[in-house]
Design a protein that fits this description.
The structure holds two protein chains of two kinds.
Chain A: E1 4-10, H1 14-24, E2 29-36, H2 43-56, E3 64-66, H3 104-118, E4 122-126, H4 131-137, H5 141-146, E5 147-153, H6 169-173, H7 175-182, E6 188-191, H8 193-196, E7 200-201, H9 203-212, H10 214-226, H11 232-235, E8 240-241, H12 245-252, E9 257-266, E10 276-279, E11 290-296, H13 298-315
Parallel strand pairs in A: 1-2, 1-4, 2-3, 4-5, 5-6, 6-11
Antiparallel strand pairs in A: 7-8, 9-10, 9-11
Helix pairs in contact in A: 1-2, 1-10, 1-12, 1-13, 3-4, 4-7, 9-10, 9-13, 10-13
Chain B: E1 4-10, H1 14-24, E2 29-36, H2 43-56, E3 64-66, H3 104-117, E4 122-126, H4 131-139, E5 147-153, H5 169-173, H6 175-182, E6 188-191, H7 193-196, E7 200-201, H8 203-211, H9 215-226, H10 232-235, E8 240-241, H11 245-252, E9 257-266, E10 277-280, E11 291-297, H12 299-311
Parallel strand pairs in B: 1-2, 1-4, 2-3, 4-5, 5-6, 6-11
Antiparallel strand pairs in B: 7-8, 9-10, 9-11
The chains are: A alpha/beta, B alpha/beta.
Chain lengths: 319, 315
């Protein structure tokens, strides 16, 4: 089996943690590195979390690169759970691990250029604001040529707003970067909150992950409970979305997702800056380069996530 | 003599070429490297031109790093007055070497790291769109303090634009990059159209370059003859404005210029006036000044210095 080589660009908060753990548990994926960006959390906190997740998954060797500490143009905003800061040592064991000296952006540039020259395009997974990726795309035209696809969590097309009424956080936090990525010709898979809202993690799912997942499972469940996303008024039933974990689930089992093809864009001016749009009906000039996830098999997704944690649990010797 | 270390980020370009040739003939400046950017011409061509200009000046010891191939957000726009190659009528021999295998943004970051580690600060000269410098500031804002100042050609404060009604070319090409630079904490020294259009390379002044008997001066005379806008109604005389060389001439002899301090801003959101630069002359913004803006120039002094520097080149 040829493994799918991926780089994960993340602003490592709670849902990113579940995504990274599930990626590192998947034999189908070769995770080349974590590149970290400010978003959910300030860069330093996200870096600390990235190191902890790599160690927790038994991969202290996984390179972690520090990226951009803020957005390209707009004033910095952090996520709803930024007040939780870096994962505490009592919750997640400290990692003996250092950050690579190279910046995440030239690392991404090097990976992409190398991929282009080997004609083995890179799959890039993004879970935070797109600052690192956008900066890399402006280095040279070879960068876009080396990225085979970007599978991203971001945007809101029908379920508008999770941090302001008109925008989803990852696009809102750096709309200019999002627009650079959206307007590139790179094939995109976009998982908006419209889709992530369709799979709600309940206490039953959490208990399952906790039971089978060894220490990683316990940590993931603790983190998810600490950043309780339940909003019964919004979702109509108990549970909270696991946004970023869907990026990895899509790579592992795309048949759980149904998509529609469209061009996508982000507003970069005015009072609705950060709003994302999708041209499902071909009304605009921009060529469609995105598969946008419209629906998800909820139980299939949680079965897959639990399976990933079971693998972590089986290889975990600490409990 | 103490020689000031500088990096020159540029998009040669006719006036960039003259600026580089003056810098390379000036012992007051230690030109550590040339970095290139998309601007007057695409970056592959501005890089080639930079290498050719260094060959012409006999400075194969100075490395060239190619930078960003397009503006951050807007589609690329190229210069109008630089000919198809970026060098007007001048045809130089093919470059004797390639650019370095490191990207300009990474190179500048590396230089700033070294500068900071040495407890020093580096002057950056920017003669083109600010894309490279904006990325440096966004990738590594912690290195801001290692930049002594950015001396740049760009903007139009009390005069109209040149490429659009309101906007000067370098800023218009990448207003988002300009915003990143203008809103950083780096001290700025700005040569805008307000002053560059006062320093006109008239046929009479260009004629004096042509009298200097060396190949570099003859090349400059050829470039500046081509540069003549021939628009007396607009500029008050024949000739073309001496944009980029003013940055270098200021580093060598600041007393040639009158400066005013102000906070500077860039319009990057509005369609009609995108790329317009605004200076807060009367403290309306509530923000402290961050730029020394050249408002007057000793034109005869500028051309005398230019002549003197070009005379230093040998046969």
């Amino acid at each position: 089996m040829t493994k799918c080589r991926i780089v994960i660009d993340t602003d490592l908060g709670v849902d990113d943690a579940l995504a990274v753990l599930s990626a590192l548990a998947s034999p189908e994926l070769e995770v080349a590195a974590l590149t970290v960006v400010a978003g959910n959390l300030p860069l330093e906190a996200a870096l600390s979390n990235a190191c902890k997740m790599a160690a927790l998954a038994g991969r202290p060797d996984l390179p972690v690169y520090a990226g951009c500490p803020g957005p390209l143009m707009r004033a910095q905003v952090y996520g709803k759970y930024a007040h939780l800061g870096a994962f505490s040592d009592s919750l997640v064991p400290p990692a003996e691990k250092s950050i690579e000296a190279l910046h995440a952006v030239p690392f991404l540039v090097g990976e992409a250029v190398d991929a282009a020259r080997r004609a083995r395009p890179l799959t890039l997974c993004t879970m935070g604001p797109l600052t690192n990726v956008a900066a890399a795309l402006r280095y040279s035209p070879e960068v876009a040529a080396g990225i085979g696809r970007i599978v991203m969590m971001g945007g809101a097309f029908t379920a508008l707003g999770n941090c302001v009424p008109f925008a989803e956080f990852n696009v809102y936090a750096d709309p200019h970067a999002a627009e650079i990525v959206f307007s590139s010709a790179i094939p995109l898979v976009v998982i908006p909150i419209d889709a992530t809202f369709q799979a709600l993690m309940t206490e039953t799912h959490l208990a399952g992950i906790e039971r089978v997942g060894g220490l990683p499972g316990k940590v993931a469940a603790c983190l998810f409970r600490a950043a309780d996303r339940s909003d019964i008024r919004r979702y109509g039933r108990p549970g909270g979305p696991v946004h970023d974990a869907m990026v990895i689930a899509y790579l592992l089992k795309p048949e759980l997702f149904s998509t529609a093809r469209a061009a996508v864009g982000a507003e970069i001016t005015g009072k609705t800056m950060g709003h994302s749009w999708a041209d499902f009906w071909g009304k605009g000039d921009r060529e469609a380069n995105a598969e946008i996830v419209r629906a998800i098999d909820e139980e299939g997704f949680f079965a897959l996530l639990t399976q990933c944690f079971a693998r972590l649990g089986n290889s975990d010797k600490t409990v | 003599m103490h020689s000031q270390p500088v990096l020159i980020d540029c998009d040669p370009g006719i006036d960039d070429t003259v600026a580089l040739l003056v810098a390379l003939a000036s012992p007051e400046l230690d030109v550590r490297a040339i970095t290139t950017v998309s601007g007057n011409r695409p970056v592959t061509e501005t890089t080639r031109n930079a290498l050719q200009v260094l060959d012409l000046a006999g400075r194969r010891d100075i490395p060239v790093y190619a930078g960003c191939f397009r503006p951050l957000i807007l589609e690329p726009v190229y210069g109008q007055f630089h000919g198809t190659s970026g060098m007007g009528p001048v045809e130089l021999p093919p470059p004797s070497r390639d650019a370095e295998p490191v990207h300009a943004v990474d190179f500048i970051i590396g230089e700033l790291e070294k500068t900071r580690a040495a407890g020093s600060r580096l002057t950056l000269c920017a003669l083109g769109p600010l894309t490279n410098l904006a990325l440096v500031l966004r990738l590594r804002p912690d290195l801001t303090g290692a930049i002594r100042r950015i001396v740049l050609m760009g903007g139009a404060f009390r005069v109209p634009g040149n490429r659009s009604m309101t906007s000067e070319f370098n800023i218009l090409v990448d207003p988002h990059a300009a915003h990143i630079v203008f809103s950083s904490d780096v001290p700025l020294v700005i040569f805008s159209l307000d002053v560059t259009t006062k320093a006109m390379a008239t046929p009479e002044r260009v004629g004096r370059f042509a009298e200097i008997d060396n190949p570099v001066a003859r090349t400059v005379a050829g470039l500046m003859t081509y540069w003549d806008r021939n628009d007396i109604k607009r500029f008050g005389s024949r000739g073309g404005p001496l944009h980029d060389p003013l940055v270098i001439l200021h580093l060598i002899k600041p007393e040639l210029f009158g400066m005013e301090r102000a906070r500077v801003f860039v319009q990057h959101e509005a369609e009609l006036t995108i790329g317009q630069t605004v200076a807060d002359w009367f403290d309306k913004s509530g923000l402290p000044p961050n730029a020394d803006i050249a408002v007057s120039v000793d034109v005869d002094g500028v051309f005398a210095l230019l002549n003197e520097r070009l005379s230093r080149y040998g046969d």
